[in-house]
Amino acid sequence: MKKRVVKILVLAIFVGFGMLFVGYNKISSNDRMTPDQYQDFVSKTYDFRFGTDKPFSPSNATTHDGKFMSSENFISSSRCATCHTDAHPQWRESAHANSFREPFYQKNVNDLIAQKKYCFYAALRVLS
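RESULT FIELD:
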């Protein structure tokens, strides 16, 4: 009798985790925004100081359609490492690659973003 209860409990735990996993995947896949939804989402709080037709000014950065793009659309640096096998390890250890991890730098960038709504030094922040 005791073995049967243990087996049922183990089975219930596996089924429970399985249901959580399926439910999580369903929720997270529904949370993705379309490019137009993302544009609307960012535009609500973005400071179009140079006009809505120049969202990235004074930076020279732009996108193919002039709209914001999610950081999920950027290729990770690990992909670059597949071809640039000698340069990537050097870059990975550089101050440039690790600058956004530094708490002092993060605070200054976040202060600038809060004040100006853009950042010259973090391309992902400019475009996303």
